[in-house]
Amino acid sequence: MTVTYNFGVGHWFSPYMGLRLNALGGVLHWNNPTEPNNGWVSARHVNLNLEFMWDLCNSFAGVNPDRVVSVIPFVGLGGDYTWHIKDSRGNPAAASNIYREDSPKVRTSSWTLPVTAGFQLRFRLCKYVDFFAEARASFYGDNWNGCAYGSPIEANVSCVGGFNINFGGRDWKSYNECASMSAIAQLNNEVNNLRAENMAAAQTIASLESQLPCPEPVVQKDCVNAPLMTTVRFTIDSDEIMPTEEVNVYNMAEWLKANPDEKVVVVGYADRDTGTSDYNMGLSKRRADAVAEALVKTYGIDPSRLTVKYDGSDVQPYSTNDWNRIVIFTQK
């Protein structure tokens, strides 16, 4: 049993998966198999691994930032340097049988590529600090300790305890497609009211203009069941039309079929708080293209009746950030 030292730094890319760069090292001791009177053989080693980590509890029990205990399996691949392989008298270990090139002296150091696997038990102390207990096993080539004999695989097991510092806490934002439905319904009602007011104002203006001498002829469009121009919402960083939004695409297609002389503009947007301006411009284009493609390929709308535009996150139609992950139809 010997002491080991461990330090790691990593990043969780989601509540389920993360990567860690982990360094582990210390002094190793093992029994001298050929000359037991010479005491223990010792070596110093340092191990650096890139490890894939998986939060088992979040994956099967749901994401919970306040969970007290988490189980996190991991696997990794890296490099190990072992040196100063000596017996207790400072001489090369008697069992060493790997020699230097062009020299009768045995090697007292080695480079290997270990594979590591293990699991970590994590105990939440507060939002930013965890205590952890970790068990790992590392598997090396037979030359790891300077003695190539028997099994081609060497193994080393270690247990480590310490603290995790969570920079930025452990909160994850999740999308709730129902959270904004009442607000959107209220806005739709307000738009409908404004449309009714506009229609009444247009009728008043037409009545007044009819009393003027030589009134200009007024051409009005005869739209069948002219609807409130609908919208199609998207989840964060996605250009896939959700099943709950397909009805809006269908309604727009039906309106276009009922009004064959009408054209619409399909405008894509992205929210400002997620991604860069350049990335969001491409994301809004993909969203607008996805809606236009659904109208054309799924519902048979002539593409000449559609004008596709995209404003990225440079234009925000709504003051609430999440509402701007959207495609909006306007009548051309």
Explain what you see.
This protein is of the alpha+beta class and 332 residues long. The chain has 4 helices and 12 strands. The protein has helices at residues 56-61, 181-210, 246-258, 277-298; strands spanning 4-12, 17-31, 40-54, 69-87, 109-112, 115-124, 129-141, 153-165, 231-233, 264-268, 306-310, 326-331. The strands form 2 sheets. Strands 1, 2, 3, 4, 5, 6, 7 and 8 form an 8-stranded antiparallel sheet that branches. The protein has a 4-stranded mixed sheet with strand order 9-12-10-11. β6 (115-124) and β7 (129-141) form a beta hairpin. The chain is elongated, with a radius of gyration of 34 Å.
Outline of the structure:
This protein has 332 residues and is α+β, with helices and mostly antiparallel strands. The protein is 21% helix and 35% strand.
Provide the descriptors you would attach to this structure in a database record.
single chain, 332 residues, alpha+beta, eight-stranded antiparallel beta sheet, 4 helices, 12 strands
